[in-house]
Amino acid sequence: MKKYLILLAVTACFACEKGMQDYRNAKPVSEVKVSTYDFLKQQGGLYDTLLLLIDRVKLTDTLKSQQVTFFVPQDNSITTAIRNVNFSRERLGDKGNWTLDSIPLEVWDSLLRRYIVRGLVTADSLRYADGSDLESLYGHEMNGKTASTNASGAVGAGTAVLQYSDKNESRFTKDWSIALTQNVDIKSTNGLMHILETRHVFGFTSFVGKAYPKSLEPLQGPYLGYPIEIPGIVNAADYDEGPKEVAYHYGNPNGGHTYRPDDPGTENCSQGDGSTSPGGNYNIGWTSDGDWVRYTVDIKEAGKYKVELRIAGNGGGLIYLLIDEVRVCEDIPIQGTGGWQNWQGAFGTADLPAGKHLMKVMIKKANLNLHRLIFTKINP
Q: Where on the tree of life does the source sit, at the highest rank (predicted)?
C-alpha cells in the first residue's frame, strides 16, 4: 500500500510541475527574426529617443544578445517626462528648458533598467491574483500582472492586459505606480517585448525627483510632480502639495489619513483604480460646506467638457469648478447614493481654457465622498 501511495505522490508532483512549465511558456502572440534592439530600430523612428538612451547607457548589447524581457516605454513617455521636469523648473523659478542632455546619465541608466528583466516573462506567466514580483537589472523590485478584460457581458472574456508596476519599495499595492501595455509577447531572437501605452510617463513617478531633486522640496504645486492632463481623470486624493488655504481648505481636519497626512480626509476607495496614479485607490471624505481642494492641470484644448464626478454619500450636495479663481460651470447637484462607498456619477459641463492652470473643486454643500473627476471633450 505504501508503495502505491509513493508512486501516486510522485506522479501528482510531476503533473503539477509539467502544467506549470506549459503555463509559463505559452506561445507568444508574434515573433520577429531580429534582436529586440534591431526590432525597435526598424520601427520607422518610433523609438529613436529610446534607442539613443539605450546606446548612451551601454545597454545595446543587453538588448541584442542577452535573454531579457523588455517592457518597452515609447518615445512619447520620455518626452512627457522631460516636459514634467520643465514644468517643475518653471514652478520653482528656474529659467530655461532642459533637454535630454540636461538630465544626468546615471538617472537615465537607473530608470531605464527598471524596464528590463532577465529571462523570458510571458503575459501568461503573470496570471496570478497578485501578479508576480520581478527583479529589474539593478535589482529594483517590480511586479507584473496579467488580467483579462470583460467582453460581451462575460467576465474575463476580453483581451489580456498586462500591468507592469514599480513597487516603490512597498509591499502594499496602493503605493505602486502602474503602467499598462498595448501589445504583449513580441518574441525576438534574444527575448520578449511588451510595449507600454503611450500615456505611461517614463520613470513611473520617480523621474522628476531623480532628474531634478529641487522638485522634492515641499512647495505648493502638483502632488504627482507634474500637472494632471485634461481630458482625462483627476483623482480627488491627488490635490496639490502645499499649505492650508493654498492647496486646500478643509473645515474638518480630523478625518482619515490613509493616503496623505493633510487636513483633507482620505480613505481606501471600494472602486479604487491606481492605473492613472496611486491616488486613484483612494477618495476624499469628511467634507464640510465650503471645503475646497486645488489641482494643477494641463488642459490640452479649450472648449466645453463633460464633467463626471464619482461620488458617494448618504445625503446630497453641490459642487462647482473654478479655473484660476474664475467659475467655469454651474452647480453640479449631488444625490444621495445610500452609502459612503456606493459610487455613482454626477454630471455637469464646464468651459475650460487651454494650457496649465489651477483648478479648484469647490464643495458648496457637503455630505459626500469624492473619488475622481472625469473630463471628456464635447465636440461641436
A: Bacteria
Cα–Cα dist 225/267, whole Å: 22
In which residue are the cell numbers 478643509 written? Answer: 250
Phi, psi of 38 (to 5 degrees): -70, -35
Domain span including residue 124: 30-208
Phi-psi region of 301 (alpha: psi -120 to 50; beta: other; left: phi over 0): beta
- Work out the end-to-end distance of the chain between its first and last CA atoms, rounded to an integer number of angstroms: 80
**312: number of CA atoms within 13 Å, CB side?**
20
Instruction: Examine the domain organization and report whether 110 and 199 are in the same domain.
Output: yes
* CA 201 centroid distance within chain: 8
143-187 pLDDT, tens digit per residue, is: 999 987 655 555 555 667 899 999 998 888 888 999 999 999 999
* pLDDT tens-digit map of 322-360: 999 999 999 999 999 999 999 999 999 999 999 999 999
Q: Whole-structure pTM over 0.70, yes or no?
A: no
